[in-house]
Design a protein that fits this description.
The chain is of the alpha/beta class. The chain is built from 18 helices and 16 strands. The radius of gyration is 21 Å and the shape is globular.
Length: 486
């Protein structure tokens, strides 16, 4: 029997809330990421923060200067009640949002939480509940208190596991009865493909990341996830735990055996490693060779392995925006997507930002994740980043977004027919937010427009796009008919 799907929308605290210096919040790793006018490599530049870049940002914060988009987000902190009212009108079943760790624990290692942060999130949880929406909470979404990076070297240090569990315990003891689904970490594999965002690792000034530190950080996050699940099942047993990765749907660029093998090996390390640990409860065999071949050392204890085996997640989730082609050769145009680069696929379209639009890839991923884990699957992020235009009459026409959603929803229906147990779909950036990859406002995802630009100018007024009505009508029709139809 096919379950009834939940339809939702998502934001992230660092991209949405703003008010970075209000209510006792501490500086986090996103607050120090500067805006840079987009070039062909701007995405890479904005995510690889060195110590000198962090020091520049701290000086700018002290002097009240500079353009740091995440410090203002889209001013969700100020527009909370209005935004929740819009989401209620939209009719979504579930709202995914994140808590700012630095708003609850400004430095990350305090013993007691910040009272003003508690009071703010009291309002968030109560507003979501009053609107009749389920809560899908992300405990950490690409934002770590900066103090933990500078004093402890981020997630390389196992001390963060204890700090994180203390933070999570406060969340579940205070709001656990209102948390339906949760993720310990957003796109946990980002620690590998985007270490600053994923694990708070500063890039050396004159060379690549130390891969032992990268993978030790990932492992420490795996341990933290399992410990939080253990704690949550005691404190808030009704909440359902998940793991989440960024899904890339890899294709070999050619039918050469070498390209196909490359696809297999990259898929294992980039995508399946966290899934095998967090959903299947195992330290996968293939990582032993990867560590050996790349001279990587990771401290993995028997206690860690026992935690993984005993406290795996209840459901699996992934973000899906694009598919990726891989080749061992030098042929093929490079393209970007979700903080990573791959070879351009000639069989699919691509956005202005190089993200390849591949709805069939979503069906492929739904089948692949379900086949590997046999656990219910949540599509926890998906959406189209585009340059939406506010017309003189106050309208925003975005038929391309409606078409994008329809094509992906059709593939969800087919995946259900395949037998995949799908929990639901959550549209990314349901209200316009600052793009995590490109650090800009110009790349918009929402069905609700926010009147702001890359420099922070604008009224921050909320305006419904055409896609708002399209998504609202789709959700209402789905719940009336029990079918994905258009």
């Amino acid at each position: 029997m096919t379950r009834e799907l939940l339809w939702g929308g998502a934001t992230a605290s660092s991209q949405y809330e703003g008010s970075f210096n209000i209510g006792g919040k501490g500086i986090d790793t996103q607050d120090v990421r500067p805006y840079k006018p987009r070039t062909s490599n701007a995405t890479k530049e904005t995510r690889l923060l060195t110590q000198s870049a962090v020091e520049r940002a701290k000086a700018d914060i002290a002097a009240g200067r500079g353009n740091y988009p995440f410090q203002r987000g889209t001013k969700g902190y100020e527009h909370l009640e209005e935004d929740i009212a819009y989401l209620k009108e939209l009719g979504i079943d579930i709202y995914r949002f994140s808590i700012s760790w630095a708003r609850l624990f400004p430095n990350g290692d305090e013993i007691e939480p910040n009272p003003e942060g508690l009071a703010y999130y009291d309002k968030v949880f109560e507003a979501v509940k009053a609107a009749g929406m389920k809560t899908f909470l992300t405990l950490t979404h690409y934002a770590l208190p900066l103090h933990l990076v500078e004093a402890y070297e981020g997630w390389t240090n196992r001390a963060l596991i204890d700090f994180y569990e203390r933070y999570a315990r406060v969340v579940f003891e205070r709001w656990g009865d209102m948390i339906d689904f949760y993720l310990p970490f957003n796109e946990i594999n980002a620690g590998y493909f985007s270490p600053w965002n994923g694990v708070g690792l500063i890039k050396p000034e004159d060379g690549p990341y130390d891969m032992s530190k990268v993978f030790q950080s990932l492992h420490n996050q795996f341990v933290a996830s399992a410990r939080v699940i253990r704690m949550q099942r005691e404190v808030s047993p009704a909440s359902q735990s998940g793991c989440m990765v960024a899904a890339f749907c890899y294709y070999p660029y050619t039918c050469s055996p070498e390209d196909n093998l490359l696809k297999l090996l990259d898929e294992q390390v980039n995508m399946w490693y966290p899934v095998d640990v967090l959903a299947n409860g195992i330290q996968p065999y293939y990582m032993e060779r990867f560590y050996r071949d790349h001279d990587i050392t990771v401290d993995i204890t028997e206690e860690d392995l026992d935690l993984f085996a005993r406290y795996s997640c209840d459901f699996v989730s992934f973000s899906f925006y694009t598919s990726s082609c891989l080749t061992t050769g030098e042929n093929g145009e490079q393209t970007a997507g979700n903080l990573v680069c791959s070879v351009r696929n000639p069989y699919v379209e691509a956005t202005e930002w190089g993200w390849q639009i591949d709805p069939v890839g979503m069906r492929t991923m739904l089948n692949a994740f379900y086949d590997r884990t046999h656990k219910p699957i949540f599509i926890s992020e998906c959406g189209l980043g585009a340059r939406d235009v506010l017309e003189d009459d106050g309208s925003i026409h975005d038929p391309y977004r409606c078409e994008y959603l329809q094509r992906h929803f059709e593939q969800i229906a087919l995946a259900q027919q395949d037998g995949v147990d799908v929990l639901g779909f959550i549209m990314w950036g349901i209200i316009d937010i600052v793009s995590a990859g490109s650090c800009e406002m110009g790349k918009r995802y929402g069905v609700i427009y926010v009147d702001a630009d890359d420099e922070g100018s604008g009224t921050y007024r909320r305006i419904k796009k055409d896609s708002f009505g399209w998504y609202r009508d789709f959700i209402a029709r789905y719940h009336r008919t029990g079918a994905i139809s258009f």
